[in-house]
Write a structure and sequence with these properties.
By secondary structure, the protein is an alpha/beta fold. It is 39% helix and 13% strand. The N and C termini lie close together (8 Å). The structure holds pyridoxal-5'-phosphate. Pyridoxal-5'-phosphate (PLP) binds next to helix 3 and helix 4.
Length: 388
């Protein structure tokens, strides 16, 4: 391995920050009011984030998992209901439904876009289905035309897991403008971050009102008499995080512009390597913030994929093994699992099952690198596959 081809330069660091975040943190500090009640940072961030994503209303919360949980609860998900989720996703998608006492029903994804298959979602609808959760994998929007039609025909609401999709557009419309609730994450690796954090956008004021009460221990805004009107929990974001997120939001467009230039180039170069198939694009997903650079090595074993990831890391690439199908995680089975075996689910979800062992992703900071680095990434990957 001594002479192995490796990256000759570093990628930009993540997270990115500067004087805007510093100024924001001091501004929040000097307010002397560090939670959202009576402060202005969370309120301002909610307005700015809603507008950015084309939504009428946004509620900031503690993290993306809580964003999903709160959004599902607003849609009426609870014990006795089912939520349809893609089998290939980060586990929060199913965990949020399961925490509410609902059953998470995995359905397969497309093998090329890695997004939920609307026909399979349609086939999984029962009288108990309370929500369908498309996850916009790596910033590529799910087929929102087919899903909107499915939702209209079935009466089952959509909840978009938009943890990867800040600023994404479908046919020129932002995620918050597609008629359904959307949940976002601001965890450290996400496209904008305060270390932790989340938000939900809502098409309707009444949904925001319900969510506000529930995210604050069931307590109405301005309540001084401890009238807890509903059940709930404390999912409130603090003022410091919101001040950082306002600065991060202001950085997003320029970062998206760079990644949107880099991905078509990298994707073309990757597709020229034998045995490598990059995530497909969809013209209707016309603005893609590119949360990950993902590709498959179809047919490889999990051991081989993991060895490739280790070799890429050794050669200077921030590479990761992708998610495993959610039903292949022990935690999925603890509560709220469907009445099926792993084998039955694997047979129903062949694409997610294959992706569990053949899919790789690169951190989005790679796509903030130079054009020359895109060529180097492809050269390093080709050399790794040929020689290791
Ligand atoms: C990151 C992520 C979440 C959860 O967000 P947290 O802020 O980490 O709780 C949910 N869904 C997907 C697809 C994610 O990638």
């Amino acid at each position: 391995m001594g002479g192995a081809l490796r990256m000759s330069s570093e990628f930009p660091a993540w997270p990115q920050y500067g004087d805007e975040e510093r100024t924001g943190l001091i501004r929040a500090l000097d307010q002397g009011q560090w939670w959202r009640m009576g402060g202005s940072e969370v309120d301002s961030f909610e307005r700015e984030f809603a507008e950015y994503n084309g939504a009428e209303h946004a509620l900031a919360v503690t993290n993306g998992t809580h964003a999903l949980e709160l959004a599902l609860q607003v849609l009426g998900v609870g014990p006795g209901t089912e939520v349809i989720v893609p089998a290939f996703t980060f586990i929060s998608s199913s965990q949020a439904a399961q925490r509410l006492g609902a059953v998470a029903v995995p359905v397969d994804v497309h093998p090329d876009t890695y997004n939920i298959d609307a026909e399979r979602a349609a086939a999984a609808i029962t009288s108990k289905t309370a929500a369908i959760m498309p996850v916009h994998m790596a910033g590529l929007l799910s087929d929102m035309d087919a899903l909107a039609k499915l939702s209209a025909d079935s009466g089952v609401p959509l909840i978009q897991d938009a943890a990867h999709a800040q600023g994404a557009e479908w046919n020129g419309k932002r995620v918050g403008d597609l008629g359904s609730v959307a949940a976002f994450s601001f965890q450290n690796g996400k496209l904008m971050t305060a270390g932790e954090g989340g938000a939900v956008t809502f098409p309707e004021q009444s949904q925001w009102d319900t969510a506000f009460v529930r995210h604050s221990c069931g307590r109405p805004n301005g309540d001084r008499g401890y009238f807890h009107e509903t059940s709930g929990s404390n999912f409130r974001l603090n003022e410091f995080s919101a001040s950082v997120l306002r600065a991060q939001l202001a950085r997003l467009d320029s970062q998206v512009a760079v990644r949107e230039q880099r991905w078509p180039l990298l994707s073309r170069l990757l597709s020229e390597i034998p045995g490598v198939v990059p995530q497909a694009m969809d013209e209707r997903s016309n603005r893609n913030p590119h949360y990950m650079a993902m590709f498959r090595l179809p047919g490889v074993s999990e051991e081989r994929r993991n060895a490739v990831v280790d070799a890429l890391i050794e050669r200077g690439l921030p590479a990761f093994a992708a998610f495993r199908a959610i039903y292949r995680c022990q935690g999925f089975w603890e509560t709220g699992a469907p009445n099926e075996t792993v084998e039955q689910l694997a047979a129903r979800c062949p694409n997610a099952d294959a992706m569990t062992h053949d899919t790789v992703w690169l951190h989005h900071r790679t796509l903030l690198g130079t054009e020359a680095q895109m060529h180097e990434i492809a050269e390093v990957l080709a050399d790794t596959l040929a020689t290791s």
